[in-house]
Amino acid sequence: MRTLFVAIFILLFTASLAVSAASPLNFVQVHVNNVLDVLKDPSLKGESMQKVKKERIRSISEKMFDFSELSRRALANNWSALNAVQQKEFVELFKEVLEDAYVDRIMSYSNEKILFQKEISMTDKTSEVQTVIITRKAEIPINYRVTMKDDGWRVYDVVI
Q: What is the pTM of this model?
């Protein structure tokens, strides 16, 4: 039993290392596909499973986005006027606003196709990953700007 536990731990640890060390394009693709897997999961169908589905999507977003950097960039010069406690509070509130605004849109996914086109290096620690969502009515470009952190890539901006 202990051997099984160790094997599972090693598998999960190496999988998380692979994602964090991956290219920006691969990083975005893995996380977006994880969200799509949640949305397509037949065991999460129905109104009673909506809360579970939203929580799983939030969990993925925690790994994908750098909410502190998103917050800092949203406030721009005003960020430095806040003390550390205010900054932390703003990050949490901004994260809630973003999740509330976008989780419902994500939940309305209906098998649109997502193309992961390319990554463009912006600096040695930042890149832009270009994707397109193809719906019946339009093609919607979505560009994820990512930055390398100690624990791997994180999205700091989304350009739609």
A: 0.80
